[in-house]
Fold each of these.
Amino acid sequence: MLTIRNLKKSYGGRILFEGADLQINYGERVALVGPNGAGKSTIFRIILGDEEADKGTVERDEWTLTGFLPQESEEVGDYTVLEIATGRAGMLQDLEATLKSLEDAGTVDVPEYYEAQGKFDALNDPKVEAKAKEMLRGLGYEEDRFERPAKEMSGGWIMRAHLARLLVIEPDLLMLDEPTNHLDLMSLLWFQNYLKNYSGAILMISHDRQFMDELVESVHDIDDRKLIHYTGNYSDYLKQRQENYERHNQAYKNQQKQIKELQEFANKFRNVSSKASQAQSKLKEIDRMEKIEKPLAPKKPFRFQIPDPPRGGQKALALNGVHFAYGNHKVYEGLDFEIERGERTVLVGPNGSGKSTLIKLLAGELEPQQGEYKPGHNAKIGYFSQHRAASLNPNNSVLSEVLEAAPTLREDEARGILGSFMFRKEEVYKMTKVLSGGEKSRLNLVKFLVDPPNILLMDEPTTHLDILTVESLILALANYQGTLVFISHDVHFIKELATDVIHVANGNAKRYHGDWDYFIEKSGAGDERAALTAD
């Protein structure tokens, strides 16, 4: 289906990868991994023909229909959500124009024509609208939002509409660049289950470890300018990579020991006439050796100890008889809710059930319309959302923003922590006003970690983080001495941290005194998604 041979790409003298080989057969599920900046998205662009390689070839079966979901959404104009999902938002017209242009030129026996024809036929199917609606529902859309202009939606919801269209087309090769970034837990689990039964091949870049563990059969890692193939899912890859490193490192050490012994013999006896020929022979043996390069150790999560926050009361937060509504839409009526000191609690539940509303009530960001909000004794509350850009001083650099948040922190310590959250080298001197949304989100996360509250409320903290940084955050929060309440679509993150699960549905918040697996078991549901939608 897709074969890459001897690919090389460099920018400004820096080689991203060379000698890269990759083959994807029909129905395979493959993950492309590597640190930020390694060249994962570049390989995608080369496959799609949007960028040229310095060397090497990309061969694709001429009948292969390829679909791509980028990280950023396209312009949506005045089209509705359903028009985007069905291709009526300009895509059908563009495909028709492409087909006519190729026909007029007499070039119909080419891959570009087959590709355009396949997508045109898929979006012209009489059942396309029903199929699009099914995809939109699975991705979390309510029926009453299908006909709304997409420009009224957030970027995340627009991406879901584009993803729905991609699934409607059903390409033979589905290329996904961070597909879970804009999904909540419910829609992620639906998408994951859908892909398990997908007939085409999948090539993905993802920071979601559990998602890859559930889906992929092989991993290609861009490491030290090479593209290395591993069989199995992401966890299998981590194990094999460590074993390969240990084996390679041992071979390197053995060879270095042998070289040292040969060199010592030569140095000792080169001037002894009876041994001079032997000494020369030892030196020639060293020259003939195929030298083993010292391997680079696999990068590991950054270990950072969150400072101990001030001790709070046993009852950290409470809501008593709380009512809250958005206009006529009642979210909570008479809600009683309590969090105790030291708990690590995840809020789960169906789309629109009120999880984010609940965490905002706990943070004091929303006021109850009736009832009582009671922070505990000595409560120092920190609320981390994806929309905290306003809390940054636009005239501060990244480094000075962190040092102001924690005056006792040394500059080298601050730079180390920032490095683990992808602010490296000169990037720490960037002004906060020029940071992207993801960079601002990560910087706010660092500020929380260096000057922690004793009650930390987090809404989707892993968005915009790569896998290694997520692991660093898990390690930090696992040893955090305060109280943690969070919402996340990352099942691995939930499994590693949550000691309590609160299921939010129909205005109620039901507590399960146990971890994620305990919640699934006690919910009595057949699978994770069913557990989340249960009453």
Amino acid sequence: MKILYSFVAIIMLFIVVSCNSKSKDKEEDQKNTSKKVELPELKLTIDTISISKFYQEYPKLEKFKKDVASLYAEKKAAQLWLDNKGVVEFGNTLFNKYRSLEDEGLKANFPYNDKITPIFERLSDNKLSQIDTDLMITNLYFYYAEKVFNGVDEKTSTSLEWLLPRKKVNYQAFSDSIFKHATINDDNKSKMFSQYYKLRDVLKKYREIEKKGGWKTIEVGDDFKSLKEGDSVATIAQIRERLYITGDIKENNKSELCDSTLISAMKDYEFHHGNTPKNIILKEHIDELNVPVSDRIKTIIANMERCRWIDPQLEKDKEYIEVNIPEFRLYLIRDHEISFISPVVVGKAMTKTVIFSGMMSYIVFSPYWNVPQSIINKEIKPGMAKNKNYLAQKHLEWNNGAVRQAPGVNNSLGLVKFLFPNSNNIYLHDTPAKSLFQSENRAFSHGCVRVAKPKELAIELLKDDPKWNPEKIDKAMHAGKENWYTLKKKVPVYIGYFTAWVDRKGQLNFYKDVYQRDESLIKLLTEE
């Protein structure tokens, strides 16, 4: 028996030793295997010679050469997007963002799409060298940054008569930030004018509506005049469904009865589409409802592009005035809140109000109107030829070879004007033609901006000035004698052009394209 136990013990010892030996051998094999799959660190040298050769091969990307060269110089000529395993994760993120440019209202049309796509989607089809691969991705990066954060170049936007100061994109600083955080998402929404992000959100909503088939055309007969509360026709159910799709009415009960809920929703819809709310539904309102979702999307995209041109620093001003031409409204912003709103009249199609900015420096009470030479030639001289008393009847007088209108209630500038000196000779002013503010389309002026509530604007601008109070302002306006006052602090004035705008309550507004500026911009953004 002892012999048997001894034999068993020897066998067990052998097994343990053998297992331990196998375990050690396995660990050693794993270590060796691990060593075998480790690859040496990838070190490429992408110098000025490599960069020059790249642009000789791919000249359509030449405009990025300076920024690309600066970026590689800063990174000591090392590659940016590749390691020994291939493209780094951040590179794949960039490509996915590029392929999702539609979310930014843009088309993905990188000049060498046939070269960039195989790098990420068909790795075996990538015929580029490692250096050219890295350079191609870097150019995609600058292409994406330009498209999303800068938009069309300044020469193009100027040709579209946009004279507001353009945002300057510092690609070097932008690159530093991007590579430091390894992301191209703007999570804190700081790189763009805030309106851009709001429009981007509604673009997503409208694209979803489009995918679901949009909305049906509301059918009305040739004899259609209006609908009012209490009417009951099939058209009412169509209107209700249309408003429900865009969230302008909370519930679709499919009723054909025009009730107070529908009228209230339509009045709200009319207001947010630049119309005067009414207690009846007119043909023009039906036409507005019938604008296809595809057209609304194009309008949103055009206005996202305009937002790319605006410096987000604008919104950090403590106080400024903004005028949106298609909206026919002026806003005084103070401490990031709206402190004053006024309807305005803007220039006619033939005498458009210029899209630009200036610094308001003066308020002129009881102003003279120094008539522009163009108006003298087109209106005053023909009027004088027909009527010898024309000047007197219009309260006009010759002044050193020019024509001016004396201060007073009949003055075309009204009782006060607000000057922000500029080469366009555009300013804000009162007007005796108050009835024009009742019109929905208020494009009537020769280019200047007429303010419906000029006295109230003056009070707001001078509220912190001890020299002025409402009574003194009213007296100066009716003095009949011109009085210039220099503002203690200049106020920025921005005159813009937005046909789609998300207000501070999150409501999307569409305005009529009074100067027909959208079409050319949309064509520019959507062409192949």
Amino acid sequence: MSPAMHRYRTHTCGALTDALVGESVRLSGWCHRIRDHGGVLFIDLRDHYGLTQVVIDPDSPAFQAAEKVRAEWVVRIDGKVRLRPEGTENADLPTGKVEIYAVALEVLGAAAELPLPVFGDQDYPEDIRLKYRFLDLRREKLHNNIMLRGRVIDGLRQRMKQGGFFEFQTPILTASSPEGARDFLVPSRIHPGKFYALPQAPQQYKQLIMMSGFDRYFQIAPCFRDEDPRADRLPGEFYQLDLEMSFIEQEDVFAAMEPVITSVFEEFGGGKPVTKGWPRIPYAEALRKYGSDKPDLRNPLVMQDVSEHFRGSNFKVFARMLEDPKNQVWAIPGPTGGSRAFCDRMNSWAQGEGQPGLGYIMWREGGEGAGPLANNIGPERTEAIREALGLAAGDAAFFVAGDPSKFYKFAGLARTKVGEDLNLVDTERFELAWIVDFPFYEWSDEEKKVDFSHNPFSMPQGGLEALQGQDPLTIKAFQYDIACNGYEIASGGIRNHRPEAMLKAFEIAGYDEETVVERFGGMYRAFQYGAPPHGGMAAGIDRIVMLLCGASNLREISLFPMNQRAEDLLMGSPAEVTPKQLKELHIRLNLPQK
């Protein structure tokens, strides 16, 4: 060994090839797997870059030390590179043609008995995986997901800069927002009794950046929401590609962002086909056809309103419902689902979802309909439904009835269930779409008033005139989402940049001028001094990476996530703080009685 050799390594564990045969090398890494083949030890040595096979036989000076080594010990190995014996090469490994014959081994870090295995990516209880996340992250699949995440963020950043966007950072300590129920609050030591909030999104700041004349902004922004956790939303914090543009209309945002998102899915999606020329689906149409404002378009099933075929029919349950003009009957087609077994299974699934059941018609060979509904409404109506849905012998249709605003979500679940159970969903592709024309307001049953349905800063379609003269519940917004494979991956809008229109919009939702000034003083003031028309969106980085990795849970693509109860099991947070800290902050705890 030359005296100049590096203390820990001359090469990484992914670098050795047959070109180096005969050379003396030094590697350091983790003992991934240790095998004893009749007294000869084989160690698969692993680091960030790859795996190298090390051979240590009883003649080697390193043998005695090697016998003590166990899985996940960190060791330094010196040895000679040699070709693997014929027939033992591993074509799956970049280093699979060679091995190291070890002459020295130094233990750099011994490992206690492992609470979870690193070798082999088998499932393991989540609380253990999160508590020992540093072990979990050594596992190949998770390690690769995290590296892919970094490449995706690089890719997004590059494309945004090429598109003429500039990257700015907005404050993390900010003011509590109007829908403040979900804010994380940070007490101020210097201002007793006052609180900062962590931003749920950089919404107001990015609009202020436009008022400040910077034209095009983006940021890979951390966002904080104190929400109940879901599989597709991390508790606590998540990252989004946040952006805003000046002097633009909705079409300009689409033109800027569609190629960015499409090309990221093409580059990192493992070669799966990606939608070219995204469809634009109005919100109301998405609910009617797919029962969702984030439809999975890999599922070919499209629901239809078939009320006319049941109106005045002998199927009294539906016929009576349809006497109320707001009620409808929707059909979910089930190609190839025309068996009693499948229809019964769907019916009991619906009951499990809290529904009375799920009516169905099956079409037998020869084309006549079967089942209780078909018998009640008769062959003519049954045939008309089959034609409307484009179905054939061996197919089925399922029916949901009532007030669509109350049942559309269930109908959407049923569409998903039918599509998946009949294997109609092509899972090997990315189907992207713009969902447009969201309603500006909705009726809040809890508060018995009109409220914002999405983003209060959006521009209503029709502007101030619409706010002054139209039924609020019929006003649409310049508001749009991106849907991909059943997930909402981005949301945005054109902003309402006119102070009088902003006041009117808030007034309809029950906020007076004083409240608007108090809560959005900075932005409202900025609107008075020459505000450019502007708009933008934010795309969920975590969800995009989750889709690209083929993971079904966001914890598979983030380094140190919390569990479902919003706890960080690794760091032990949230945690209690000392009385001294509380005293400095002038805070006294008022804990619920046990």
